[in-house]
Please model this.
Amino acid sequence: MLIGRRLAMATLCLLAAVAPQARAQRPPGGPPAVGIVRVARRAITETNEFVGRIQATNRVEIVARVTAFLEKQAFVEGAEVKKGELLYLLEQPPFQADVEAKRAAVAQAKAQLENANITLGRAQALLHTPAGQQSTVDNARATQLSDAAQVLSAQAQLEQSEINLGYTEIRSPIDGRIGRTSVTIGNVVTPSSRTLTTIVSQDPMWVVFPVSERTVIDLLHKYATKGGYNAVVIRLRLPDGKMYGQAGKLDFVDNTVSPTTDTVILRGTIPNPPLPLPRDQQTIRALTDGEFVTVLLEGVEPVEVLSIPRAAVLSDQQGDYVFTVNSANKVEQRRVQLGQSTPMLATVLSGLKDGEEVILDGLQRVHNGQVVSPGPAAEPAGQAAAGAVNQ
Model:
């Protein structure tokens, strides 16, 4: 027991002697190392995003113009049809018979008119003889005019019957994609029947999207001096997240602000060509009437703005801020106002100047007024490709 106590006392004495020497040999801590980037002007493409809907530029509801039995459906539901292509064939014999009857009426009226012309000629020839009378000439002329009117009436009725016969062939008034039929063969269709089918045009398409009144004013100020509508390009992000390969043009801004949503309707036109598929398959296009898409309004020409990596920006209850390093290597917290940005890049509207140094690496180790050891920061992956920013 005594030996153990002596060993413990010796150990404590040894540690007490070594500890001051160890503290004396420990090197003093230097300023923390941080990675910095310079605030610089970069050429970017400004982008605004909105939610829009695809609309066909032409939409036609096919209805019957005459009452008849439906004898034939000549199209494939969901396929694309051409202007003038036969869609439905209605029962024709009753209308053909009516046309023949009206042609006979025209021939009869013409025969009566010919006889009236002959009678008028004879009455006029006898007028200068003792057997002629003026009243006879007047009656013959009246009959001749009445028969001429009968011919015109019969011809008009014939034309109407021919028109009705033409209505038994229901043809497509536009190029487009046809929907499903609502009436099957054997049913009677009338002008008051429901829509037989609907055709929507395919190329180009409209994209319609509501924009807040304030945003419309901002866009107006931004692009008014750069060409107006021509300074804006429309691009689409499809529902699956992929970017659509065709670009469109803004061509319409509504003249009324919605009193309920405080928005203005904007519209653009965008191509919708067929997708490359084997010839034996139906034509398929990327955009469909009524489809929801994300609309991106892009400036045609890039603009130069102050920008920094988005990872250098911190936020608190007061807003966005960054840490800068001055010429004495001291950290300064700087409040900034950001413009459009992406996950990789942020544009700076106020709070920083061109050439200032912003901390990107080591943000968790610094505070306002601290002295640091700055060095070049590693460029974030994808930073070089971040050439477009959006809201």
